[in-house]
């Protein structure tokens, strides 16, 4: 605890110093964002990305919403910004969606929506106003600071908005905000003056003084100071405040000393349930929160009673830790306390309790959760209960969940579709098929996922239709589901999906196809051929090898298996797996002695492996088998002699040519004889030069 206090104090000192270090960089970091006046010609992928990110702005997952908003801002395109400004301007947009967009502008320090953010300071929603104020304080461009200042100094602006603008200017920690704030000290309103004073103190670190004349004189003296001079004064003032803060913290440490110093002195690895059980009963919330978090780390059944006793703690943070830990431990004794926590005054605690009951996995909780589900109206609570019913896996909840597939809120339909898949009951199939046509993308993709998990072939036709869905994520889910079902109709659809424009869809289709083992010979052959034609040689080779292993012992399929081996050899050749390709080529070359392509590729493998003697033996065999191989074999011999010459093996080349003369004095005819003799002469010169 002592170490944590020191870190807090250090952070308090360091933060303003770092903030003023940024002031001088405003001209670099605070550049106004420049966007295209007209939309440039965009390719299909960019258009699809914009559409997908726009849809994701309305996701229930705040991480997905934030990522989508930041991605759209990063494009610096007018049509990419429009969905964001529309959300800021539309009053009917969900509050959480609007807040995510606001935070994205603040995070990226993008000043294109400063006007809209200022307007949001007068909206009815406190969370939206707070988010807008914080974002305006983070943007910090010269343009945004000027707009904030002008809006604050506007006499028509309401008092509440002016207060928010003053706070935002204070949060910029920018020197340019000082002068307009000083001007605001002339107002008569005490609340507004108090906010302005706090912002001035935050930026300048000068103790509060509400005399506007004093501040004007101070500004005249200090506005020309260098950054280093400002920084020295700030550090000195912070040291004074540090001493005052340390005195206050010493008082707080009185209770910490009584209840938790004893734990800290024992060392982290020696903290036991007995001491934590005492600490979690402390009168001070900080100590109870500390104890709850430490108990969560123990994660043993021995602490269940301690946690159950603390589940009604006054502090929300304690109850959250307790409920979560009880869910992780999974002790049956926690069942009834967690059921009671479903009625906690805190929304977060109720959500955590619902999820903890799902982790508990006790069927006794099912009817309680179903009853709670029919009473709750908050969508986050409803979703938590639905998810828990899916985790528990009791089919008694199927009929109830089916009703929620038609709920007006898309987030509830989405989590319902997902949970029905976990339950795996065929009663849900018909309703999930209907959900494939839901207007919301995420509902469609979870419906497809769940149909795949249930695995009923009746849904194949409907899933195939989703392969033309506008959403790549939905198409990917449909592909996954078709692969899980794996009948002939599904496999044929997966082969067509290899031509999808989205790489994720193609990869998922390929992965599903390559893992299918129960298909017929012809279907597996078709899959391998599709992979080969798409230059996906590794997957093609995997499927071909599986076909050979599975059907090699079927006499009636030997001709087909031989053809598969040819495809395998060509696939290994394309992969440049020379040794394995050579092994297959040598096996099939005897059966297909008239196929020159096989001979040529066999020789190429040998050349790549630099096994020249092995190639020469094959040329001899082929000449003996069929004189029509004359041209191929003598050309091959000449190529090998040339390759050996390039390696500087002059004596080996001469020996080879002499050996070939003994076989045929004409060395394969006039054309080849002339070239062999020229190569022989070059070898003599090479030998002579090496000796010289």
Low-confidence stretches: 1-39
Task: Kindly report the CATH topology of the domain at 260-392.
Answer: Leucine-rich Repeat Variant
Our count of helices gives 40
Q: At the fourth CATH level, what is the homologous superfamily of the domain at 260-392?
A: Leucine-rich Repeat Variant
- The CATH architecture of the domain at 260-392 is Alpha Horseshoe
Radius of gyration: 38 Å
Main sheet attributes: strand count, strand direction, barrel closure: none
Strands, total number: 0
Q: Could you tell me the strand content as a percent range? A: under 5%
Q: How far apart, in Å, are the first and last alpha carbons?
A: 84 Å
- Globally, the shape reads extended
Task: Provide the structure class.
Answer: mainly alpha
Features:
692 residues; mainly alpha; Leucine-rich Repeat Variant; 40 helices; 0% strand; extended; disordered N terminus
């Amino acid at each position: 605890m002592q170490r944590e206090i020191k870190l807090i104090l250090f952070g308090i000192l360091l933060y303003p110093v770092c903030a003023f270090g940024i002031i001088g960089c405003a001209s670099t970091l605070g550049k106004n964002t420049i966007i295209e006046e007209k939309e440039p010609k965009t390719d299909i992928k960019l258009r699809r990305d914009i559409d997908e990110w726009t849809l994701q702005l309305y996701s229930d997952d705040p991480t997905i919403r934030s990522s989508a908003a930041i991605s759209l801002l990063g494009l610096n395109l007018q049509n990419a910004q429009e969905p964001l400004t529309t959300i800021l301007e539309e009053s009917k947009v969900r509050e959480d969606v609007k807040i995510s967009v606001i935070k994205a502008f603040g995070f990226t320090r993008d000043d294109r929506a400063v006007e809209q953010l200022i307007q949001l300071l007068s909206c009815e929603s406190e969370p939206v106003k707070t988010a807008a104020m914080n974002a305006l304080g983070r943007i910090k461009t010269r343009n945004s600071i000027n707009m904030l200042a002008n809006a604050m100094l506007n006499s028509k602006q309401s008092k509440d908005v002016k207060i928010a603008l003053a706070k935002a200017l204070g949060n910029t920690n920018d020197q340019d905000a000082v002068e307009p704030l000083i001007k605001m000290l002339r107002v008569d309103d005490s609340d507004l003056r108090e906010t302005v004073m706090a912002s001035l103190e935050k930026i300048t670190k000068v103790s509060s003084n509400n005399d506007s004349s004093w501040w004007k004189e101070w500004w005249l003296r200090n506005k020309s100071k260098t950054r280093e001079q400002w920084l020295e004064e700030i550090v000195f003032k912070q040291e004074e405040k540090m001493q005052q803060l340390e005195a206050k913290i010493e008082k707080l440490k009185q209770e910490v000393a009584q209840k938790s110093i004893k734990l800290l002195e024992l060392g982290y690895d020696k903290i036991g349930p007995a001491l934590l059980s005492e600490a979690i009963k402390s009168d001070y919330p900080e100590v109870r929160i500390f104890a709850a978090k430490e108990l969560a780390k123990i994660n043993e059944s021995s602490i269940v009673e301690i946690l159950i006793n603390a589940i009604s703690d006054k502090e929300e943070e304690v109850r959250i830790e307790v409920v979560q830990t009880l869910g992780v431990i999974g002790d049956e004794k926690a069942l009834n306390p967690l059921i009671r926590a479903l009625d906690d005054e805190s929304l977060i605690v109720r959500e955590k309790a619902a999820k903890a009951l799902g982790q508990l996995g006790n069927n006794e909780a099912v009817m309680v959760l179903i009853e709670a589900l029919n009473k709750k109206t908050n969508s986050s609570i409803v979703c938590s209960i639905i998810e828990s019913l899916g985790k528990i896996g009791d089919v008694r909840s199927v009929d109830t969940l089916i009703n929620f597939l038609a709920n007006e809120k898309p987030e509830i339909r989405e989590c319902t579709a997902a949970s029905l898949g976990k339950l795996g009951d065929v009663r849900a199939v018909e309703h999930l098929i209907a959900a494939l046509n839901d207007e919301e993308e995420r509902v469609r993709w979870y419906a497809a996922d769940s149909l795949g998990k249930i695995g009923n072939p009746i849904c194949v036709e409907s899933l195939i239709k989703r392969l033309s869905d506008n959403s790549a994520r939905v198409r990917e889910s449909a592909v996954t589901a078709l692969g899980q079902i794996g009948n002939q109709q599904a496999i044929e659809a997966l082969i067509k999906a290899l031509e999808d424009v989205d790489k994720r869809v193609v990869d998922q289709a390929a992965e599903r196809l390559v893992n299918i083992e129960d298909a017929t010979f012809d279907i597996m052959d078709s899959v391998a051929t599709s992979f080969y034609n798409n230059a996906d040689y590794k997957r093609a080779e995997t499927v071909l090898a599986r076909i050979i292993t599975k059907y090699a012992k079927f006499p009636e399929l030997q001709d087909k298996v031989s053809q598969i081996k040819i495809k395998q050899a060509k696939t290994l050749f394309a992969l440049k797996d020379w040794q394995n390709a050579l092994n297959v080529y040598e096996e099939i070359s005897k059966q297909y002695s008239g196929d020159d392509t096989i001979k040529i590729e066999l020789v190429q493998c040998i050349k790549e492996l630099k096994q020249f003697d092995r190639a020469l033996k094959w040329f001899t065999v082929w000449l003996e088998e069929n004189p029509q191989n004359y041209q191929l074999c003598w050309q091959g011999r000449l190529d090998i002699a040339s390759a050996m010459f390039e390696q500087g093996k002059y004596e080996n080349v001469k020996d080879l040519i002499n050996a070939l003369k003994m076989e045929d004095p004409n060395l394969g005819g006039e054309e080849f004889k002339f070239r062999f003799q020229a190569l022989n002469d070059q070898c003599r010169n090479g030998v002579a030069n090496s000796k010289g």
